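RETRY 2/3 - previous attempt timed out on the joint model. Re-submitting the same 990-residue input unchanged.
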Amino acid sequence: MTTSPMTTSKPTVVLVGYGMVGHRFLEALADSGAADRYRVVVLAEEPRHAYDRVALTSYFSGRSADDLLLAEEGFADRHGFEVHLSSPVASIDRDAKTVTTAAGHTVGYDTLVLATGSYPFVPPVDGKDAEGCFVYRTIEDLEAIEAYAATANVGAVVGGGLLGLEAAGALKGLGLETHVVEFAPRLMPVQVDEGGGEALRRTIEEMGVVVHTGVGTKTVVVEDGKARGMTFTDGSELETDLVIFSAGVRPRDQLARDCGLDVGERGGIAVDDFCKTSDENVFAIGECALAVDGRVYGLVAPGYEMAQAVAQQLADEACKPFTGADLSTKLKLLGVDVASFGDAFGTTEGSLDVVYSDSRSGIYKKLVVTADGALLGGILVGDAEAYSSLRPLAGTGNPLPVPAESLVLPAGSGAPVSLGSSALPDDAVVCNCHNVTKGQVRSAVTEHSCTTVPEVKKCTKAGTGCGSCIKLLSTIVTDELEASGVEVDKGLCPCFAHTRAELYEIVRVKRIATHRQLLAEHGRAPEGAEGCEVCKPTVGSIIASLAPELEASGHILDGEQAALQDTNDHFLANLQKNGSYSVVPRIPGGEITPEKLIVIGEVARDFGLYTKITGGQRIDLFGASVDQLPQIWSRLVAAGFESGHAYGKSLRTVKSCVGSTWCRYGVQDSVAMAIHLELRYRGLRSPHKLKSAVSGCARECAEARGKDFGVIATSNGWNLYVGGNGGATPRHADLLAQDLDDEQLIRLIDRFLMFYIRTADRLERTSTWLERIEGGLDHVRDVVVNDSLGICADLEALMANHVADYQDEWAATLADPDRMRRFVSFVNAPGVPDPSIRFTPERDQIKPDLVLLATEEELLAALDPDNALLETR
Amino acid sequence: MTTVATTTRVELLTGRSWTTVCDWERLVPGRGVAVLLPDGTQAAVFRDHADRLYAVANRDPFTGAYVLSRGLVGSTADGRVYVASPLLKQRFDLATGECLDDETVRIPVHTARLGDV
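RETRY 2/3 succeeded.
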């Protein structure tokens, strides 16, 4: 270790403590570009680099110590940070501006940053230091617990807070009879109230953890130096051979105390708004710091804010003062969702509670509201789905747009309630990619006179990243326009004043089989217009859905249809970020023979493709260039594969569990049903993608209720659920009908899908469609079960036509030279591979080489000048 | 921009010479093709429904990927013909190269013509 501060002319920053907050400080310094203006010395107590302490428990579920590391390899070297592990600091000399480690090395500093964190509080009980007593803080603690648990039968955790329950879960996972002892009358006393604690307790006890509340630990009973039991303040005793103390943490401020820095009465290094201590050259951040609001924050997010603030000051950047943090939390403990936000305990004067509690299912929801209905805070246990929509509303002062009780009642009891755009406060972030708030979107409409979603996107950048917020964005824009009295255009796009559902009816009734004709006869664009990237694929999809009725070609690459398809459909593959494509062969129901698996492996190997198992029980092959697609598919088709339509707005997969054939719980053959459904609906073009699943029993291993149409076996047949979704807005599917036999099930799905295709908007999943259409689920049930509109025969006939008309798009494409012409890298140099599609290795596979795409010069420089791609004419 | 009636060949001006792209009939109205130029750069050539010919750079400036030839052709209410990037859907005026969704971005435009065989 260098001992002199004078070896460099740069000012020296010494960071004491290398935990999560310390690491965030280094990252922020590196991101600010100021890292090279300082010599940065990091003195770490632990023998390893910073790791994810929040995820510590995952060490027991298989994550290694290395997996938990926060920094990628070479992080410190790349930024010139001098990291010294196992080097705890013993003293600070503020006059000499030096720190000295326990090993006696001295380092000078210009700026000192203390990020020493906290230590576990161990109550001063007899026997607390016996063998078999542990704390739960570091990887070393966990290693020791794991080793000792191998010889133990019973384990007890002192402390029923967040960390204590995690420790209990870990002991349970290690096979011990597990007890939790909490001094307060309930579990997690800081986050939840009595009702929430009760719901949590019941669920945790059901898992086999014994919970003791309202008792204090008196002693640890010791025999031969080893823990053998515990005695409690109520006189009871417990035999146990392992004890974990998890009764809270205390700031590690001893170093600061010793060198005379101001500390709080109850501990914590006192800092100002800018994390500066009473010495202007010393900062303190994270759990060791006492913030200006008089609190010590034991959460990582406030620690990160402090780290950021100090790094910004060192980089001479404007810095946001740290005056306190929101303590709202949402977490999953032993599989139970727990969230608390805002004024969770109703400490505001005159506050009122709205509570829903269902002890049977371990659900507890409480909202704290003002007398006039504004949300102050809440506690959610067992089902915290509403957290993200409720948290931004708490404390805004606006009355809730719906009765508070409707927000705590479980879904399905009465009309479904979801908060519309008007419920969101102006500072709620709508677009996460570009951090655009609802207020910015609204002002784009009101102040910048944007009247359409594309204009708002251009003005605010919202929706131009991943695009998952576009639905919400358009709702806000529409609401805002309607509020300001502008008549809202419900047309599909600038070319058509009709909605998708209206265009579907026009195409069906007037039997119009081309986009050109539809645009000329029903469009609003000037004569000779091209159409646009919205109406072309939409109309293409409608024509494909109705192809047999229109007597149009059933192949989406025939005639004019070819010109309407988005690039994915146009090349029957999925475009990826570097211009290459991915290929997904259909594996119906997720069932596949070893021979077919080998073929996929061989194809991937021979074409050098990246392979990944998808969520839909199939295999995705990435990195194919346009010209490789037919070669890949010739091999796949020859081996009996067909298109998986991963590229289309159409049926993707029907996932299944193994069902009654193998599973001891299964009551129906879910695999056979899944294969049957997948083969029936494959290739069906729809307003958006369609996903499905079949579960063989009520345990629901296939996750059918997260699908557009999901089937769950009962001892009497099948239950059909519709309108489920995962993704950005998860929604459990609603029960449409129960105890159906095979034939009834298929007839009902036929009707449901065709009714959806007929009436949904462009890119509207079944989940949003079901919530949008008038009458909701009840109306859909009326139409498809009770045939209230008298259209069920039509819907069934449409599906029968689809099934009869199906052909494998890839086999048909390979057989047709005209359709094959598009699969070339360059129209003028079909044999030359596209030089922009290159890959670099990662984890024994490939990934796109994005450096090559950064500028055109990079690509050109990478080409061999002696090997000109083309001769000039 | 050129209007044609007869079957001919599409060419692009590269430096002071013309590079052959393909036969005019090979172009499908409303779609594009990718062209490799002698200097290693790439162009995207399109034909619209009025049989006009356009050529722009194939590189999508928002992602760096060479994919614009695979986008869909559209026209605005005031008649500007554009291609929408197949990746993040930004639109580029095929006549001027201007991005219709972000006026600070512009892609290069090539000179194209129809030559006799």
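Chain A touches chain B through 53 residues (CB under 8 Å). Closing ticket.
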